[in-house]
Amino acid sequence: MNQKQFINRLIQIIALSKVPGKVVKVALENEDGYVVYGVEISTSNGIKDVKVDAENGKIFKIDGDYNEKDNNDKEVDDDKADNDKETNDDNIQ
After folding, report:
1. What is the pTM of this model?
2. PepSY domain: which residues (predicted)?
3. Which CATH architecture describes the domain 3-91?
């Protein structure tokens, strides 16, 4: 396995950790000035496009065809989500 194949597989694993399904396509893209890998994943709810930051490997954004049970396009901010969880945990007694 060469370096390009290794990175491609790693990006797929990162994307699939957030959106289970079958990877259809992986491509290097520019998303609002950020270099990201766009990973198209076929799911039971349609195609999801997971954007993985090419610099740090974090999920940048998830968007795609959603059914009524899903949210609209999602901006992912793991740090904010972690902070919100900590704040909520502090309020539980």
Report:
1. 0.69
2. 14-62
3. Roll (3.10)
- Own/partner long-range contacts of 11-14 (Cβ < 8 Å, ≥24 apart): 11/37, 11/39, 11/52, 11/57, 12/39, 14/52, 14/57, 14/59
Q: Where are the domains of the chain?
A: 3-91
pLDDT of residue 91: 39
**Within the chain, where are the H helices?**
3-18, 78-91
Q: CB burial class (10 A; 0-12, 13-18, 19+) of residue 93?
A: exposed
The low-confidence residues of the chain, meaning pLDDT below 70, are: 65-93
For 52, the 3-state DSSP assignment is: strand
pLDDT in tens, 7-20: 999 999 999 999 99
Contact 87, 76 (CB under 8 A): no
Quick one: DSSP state of residue 45?
A: T
**pLDDT for the residue numbered 64:** 77
